[in-house]
Amino acid sequence: MKRPDPHDPDTPKLSNFLCFAVYSANLAFGKAYRPILESLGLTYTQYIALIALWEDDSQTVGSLGEKLFLESNTLTPILKKLEGMGYLERRRAEADERQVLVSLTDAGRLLREKGLGVNLFAVCGLAADEIPKLQQSVVALRDSLVRSTQQG
């Protein structure tokens, strides 16, 4: 079999794949957030879990997982770690013991001041008015992909 010519315009280029652009941007965000999150003692997934709880405290593991696009088997260890750090507590719902409620502790609420100070707008290289537009486009892309995987 003949090897593709990398100079042939019809040869697919990694840099032309939207999925790679999104993937590599995610990796770059991770690197940019790392020093900030290390100062908070959190991983990125722990941080977004706390943000979701700062937005809407006392919710079920299931609803939190839906917001974060995480399965229960991925989310549970994150929540256990945050509980061990003293930022949240988990308890069975009185109405339905199959459901686990997640709530912030006082320490978790106090971390909000420090945690919401994380701002990477300056390093994004975008004008302030471009960021909401890009965020909306990425959300629309994600939602379309989610819908396409749920069909069929």
From TrEMBL:
Gene Ontology terms: biological process: response to stress
Glycoprotein in keyword set: no
HTH marR-type domain ranges (all copies): 15-143
PROSITE patterns to which the protein is assigned, alphabetical: HTH_MARR_2
UniProt keyword list: Cytoplasm, DNA-binding, Transcription, Transcription regulation
Any GO CC annotation of this UniProt entry: cytoplasm
Keyword Lipid metabolism: no
Compartment(s): Cytoplasm
A single GO molecular function term of this UniProt record: DNA-binding transcription factor activity
UniProt name for this protein: MarR family transcriptional regulator
Organism: Massilia polaris
